[in-house]
Amino acid sequence: MRIVSLLPSATEIVCALGLRDRLVGVTHECDFPEDVATLPKVTRTLIPKDASSGAIDQMVRERLKESRALYSLDMDVLSELRPDVIVTQALCDVCAVAEQEVCAAAESLPGPPRVVNLEPQTLSEVLDSIRAVGSALGMATVADEVVARLTRRIQSVRQGSRMLRHPTRVVLLEWLDPPFSSGHWSPELVRLAGGVELLGREGKDSETLTWNAVVEAEPEVLVVACCGFDIERTLEDIQMLRDHPEWRRIPAVEAGRVYVVDGSQYFSRPGPRLVDSLEILAHVLHPLVHPGAPARIVRLEAGGVIPEPAAAGG
């Protein structure tokens, strides 16, 4: 079986099922496990590498109006790979190759290959996606085992959060210029981690916010997990916000409870490491109850000041 993945999260699912050796092509964004970066790339992006967050947001809005994606297939590479199965998504026609383009491409290939579409909007649906991929690839038993391990970790966080008397007031932002609330599975992760998401809605799309709305929500904790950005790229945007009057009025910013996490590797990838995202949040919100974190976190100083690198381990 020759598998092409059109999503970083799908690539991680395929590898978690023990089928890394069956992967023959991935996207330009697939980077975990690390060795998948050596595989042929079947997608391209229209986003310039040096584009600002504001410029990226404008490009996304323009493409949405025209119902066009920011990513496209490299049909020459895809044809050469001769996939039996293509794993893709139907959740967002901007942040990945559009579903219609994938289906049309599959129909033009010999076979044609089977297309497995994933569209999770909640944590339980992410687990269902793992089962769906496992079933499609003949690894249903392994998928059940993977889901069982992830479920045990989820239950461990849930059990710890039940010890808390009061949930922490949280805003999780998925973008900074302009600010976006969290959506889909992220508000659920906040709840399971012992918080209450003040602006995002479980199972719903993220929404554009104003900084005044974030101030008025009065979050005790602000978590910044920019979609597609790592920590260093996110810190660049926060640096630009330091003198923004409304940014400095946010209670969490004033109190030094702003946490920057890797949105690219974790929160915006609906795959196995979404459970890592839950554990990151649990540690951020209640470090005494959840003392360990599976990934790096940067905690900003009071006023939103970025700490020196030596103190950035959070």
Could you list some keywords that capture this structure?
single chain, 314 residues, alpha/beta, Rossmann fold, 2 domains, six-stranded mixed β-sheet, four-stranded parallel β-sheet, 13 helices, 40% helix, globular
Q: What does this protein look like?
A:
- It is a single chain.
- With 314 residues, the chain is an alpha/beta fold.
- α5 (123-136) runs antiparallel to α6.
- The protein is globular and about 60 Å long.
- The chain is built from 13 helices and twelve strands.
- α1 (8-16) links the parallel β1 and β2 (23-25).
- It has helices at residues 8-16, 53-65, 75-81, 99-108, 123-136, 140-161, 186-192, 211-217, 231-241, 245-249, 251-255, 263-267, 274-285, and strands at 3-5, 23-25, 43-45, 71-73, 85-89, 114-118, 168-176, 179-181, 195-197, 221-224, 258-260, 298-299.
- The protein folds into two domains: 3-119, Rossmann fold, CATH 3.40.50.1980; 165-311, Nitrogenase molybdenum iron protein domain (Rossmann fold, 3-Layer(aba) Sandwich).
- The model is unreliable at 310-314 (pLDDT under 50).
- The termini are far apart.
- 40% of the residues lie in helices and 15% in strands.
Number of helices: 13
Give the amount of beta strand, in percent: 5-15%
Number of strands: 12
Q: Using the 3D structure, state the CATH architecture of the largest domain.
A: 3-Layer(aba) Sandwich
The secondary-structure element order is EHEEHEHEHEHHEEHEHEHHHEHHE
What shape does the CA trace take?
globular
Radius of gyration from the alpha-carbon trace, in angstroms: 20 Å
Please mark out the parts with pLDDT under 50 across 5 or more consecutive residues, or reply none.
310-314
Structurally, the number of domains stands at 2
CATH class of the largest domain: Alpha Beta
Multimeric organization: single chain
Q: End-to-end span in angstroms?
A: 43 Å
What do we call the CATH homologous superfamily of the largest domain?
Answer: Nitrogenase molybdenum iron protein domain
Rounded mean pLDDT score: 91
Helix and strand composition category: alpha/beta
Largest sheet: 6 strands, mixed
